[in-house]
Specification:
Largest sheet: 9 strands, mixed
Number of strands: 21
Distance between the termini: 18 Å
Mean pLDDT: 89
Strand order of the largest sheet: 4-11-9-8-5-6-7-12-13
Low-confidence stretches: 1-36
CATH class of one domain: Alpha Beta
């Protein structure tokens, strides 16, 4: 759910999570600022979001019903617990399900067996979800659920329309995923929502640090469940074909590979109808306990839907370039991958009015570190991109205002964010879901501050000396390659 953007006073939430739930937050340590000053920030932030066009849905909720989860194991435990308790519906969306996650599938199967009225809607990316590791795929692992509970289970696989024709035929598995993916992370159980940046696989449940925020609220849970259902409506369905499964489009829906232009038009119409319906939800606080406002954000570049991008640019401008604060704002942004889209980078680099701290994975905490084949050069590519940003910030005279920290924890990788990563592909190629949260609840703000401190516990400052280290020397050819493929990272 989430890139994390945290500000000292207010808090935009997940990248709806969910490069925080790509959740994005503006948060503040409750003891650092005067209450009046806080309220000015909160009011102005809400006004900016109200001005967004087309209108964003607005949900007024109780801050005490929102809690961060701090570790992968707690996240997995919470998911298992919610599966056991769900009575009506379970909605899950992620890039993929690990091929060896039999325990999770067993938990889902047991819940479906013991509660015949329970419905499961699960959405994955088709390219990633059907990639066979040699030990099976997400699709093959989930197929028994479709076979055993045909009236309760819906498994969907989204396929990007931008991978079709000759490109579809010539690009090999894994590399073709750079063209576009279903990258949303949504975990909904009856009236409980978890927004995260985590996928459903062993490392995300054990030693891959991410972000995870729980929301106990029926309305916001219903929104994201409906979002997943809507995307599922123009995705392949995993169907039982006797001794095997097939992936089929619903009758009347254009195939994204065979008829990509018509598919894009259909998906655009479907998503615009979804957004129009939910834009009518404009909740105001029912009483003082409803002290937190949630604004869901969607980014679907292939279909011309760019809510998250517009709000991000607007908020960066407000926080980094508007001189209406008594003291500089403090902005924290976290992503597993240091690869900001150009406009985001320039907005940060040229800021003179805020202190910014960027948290990303060190090369050793990158999931591609020491991987086989050409992908082992992906961490050096990110190092090079980070070095260029570092140099540009210094050249702009912002060496003191803009800091970079790298997460390094022995045996762990770092993926803390929401759905998007702030990069070009998040904006243009992938399907992303985020959440912007504004709160005056002191307890919630304290919890979010503690979450930030938990992430920074293993983060170390990046300096000039960092890039002089022998293990940070990047082969010359990686420089050219990184520029060529940057839009696919």
């Amino acid at each position: 759910m989430l890139t994390l953007a945290t500000i000292r006073r207010v808090l935009p939430a997940h990248r709806v999570a969910c490069a925080a739930v790509s959740m994005r937050y503006l948060t503040s340590h409750p003891s650092t600022l005067p209450k009046y000053d806080d309220q000015i920030y909160i009011t102005r932030t809400r006004e900016l979001l109200q001005e967004t066009r087309p209108s964003l849905p607005r949900f007024a909720v109780q801050g005490e019903k929102i809690k961060p989860i701090l570790s992968p194991s707690e996240f997995y435990s919470e998911m298992k617990d919610q599966i056991r308790k769900a009575q009506r519906s379970i909605t899950l969306a992620a890039l993929y399900l690990g091929h060896n996650e039999t325990d999770l599938v067993t938990s889902l199967s047991e819940a479906l067996r013991t509660r015949p009225g329970l419905k499961l809607n699960l959405l994955l990316d088709s390219l990633r979800g059907t990639r066979d590791s040699g030990k099976g795929s997400s699709a093959s692992l989930l197929y028994p659920l479709v076979k055993a509970y045909p009236n309760q289970v819906r498994i969907s696989m989204y396929h990007t329309p931008d991978l079709s024709g000759v490109l579809k035929r010539v690009m090999p598995p894994r590399f073709n995923e750079g063209i576009g993916l279903m990258h949303m992370k949504v975990y909904a159980f009856d009236d409980t929502l978890i927004m995260s940046g985590a996928n459903m696989s062993h490392d995300y449940f054990t030693d891959r640090q991410d972000r995870y925020i729980t929301f106990q609220n029926r309305d916001i849970t219903e929104y994201y469940s409906d979002l997943v259902s809507t995307v599922s409506s123009f995705s392949y369905s995993l169907n039982d074909k006797g001794n095997n499964f097939s992936l089929d489009m619903t009758h009347g829906v254009p195939d994204p590979v065979k008829d990509s232009k018509r598919f894009k038009k259909h998906a655009n119409r479907t998503m615009k109808s979804f957004l129009e319906k939910w834009s009518k939800v404009q909740q105001s606080p029912k009483d003082p306990s409803h002290d937190t406002t949630l604004y869901p954000l969607i980014q679907m570049g292939p279909f011309g839907i760019r809510q998250e991008e517009l709000v991000t640019l607007s908020m960066l401008d407000h926080l980094l370039h508007t001189n209406d604060h008594e003291e500089p704002a403090k902005l924290y942004i976290t992503s597993g991958y240091f690869n900001f889209e150009k406009r985001y980078s320039q907005a940060i680099i040229n800021s003179k009015l805020a202190d910014v701290c960027l948290i990303a994975a060190s090369p050793e905490a990158n999931g591609f570190f020491n991987s086989a084949g050409i992908s082992k050069f992906i961490p050096p590519a990110y190092t090079l991109i980070e070095k260029r940003f570092f140099d540009d910030a210094n050249a702009a005279g912002n060496a003191e205002r803009i800091k970079i920290e790298e997460y390094l924890r022995k045996g762990w990788t770092y993926h803390a964010k929401g759905s998007p990563n702030f990069g070009y592909r998040s904006i243009v190629r992938d399907l992303e879901a985020q959440l912007f949260l504004v709160t005056s609840n002191l307890g919630l703000r304290k919890c979010l501050h503690e979450e930030l401190m938990s992430l920074r516990q293993y983060a170390y400052p990046v300096t000039e000396e960092t890039f002089k280290s022998p293990d940070r020397q990047v082969p010359i050819w990686v420089g050219g390659a990184s520029r060529a493929i940057r839009t696919m990272l």
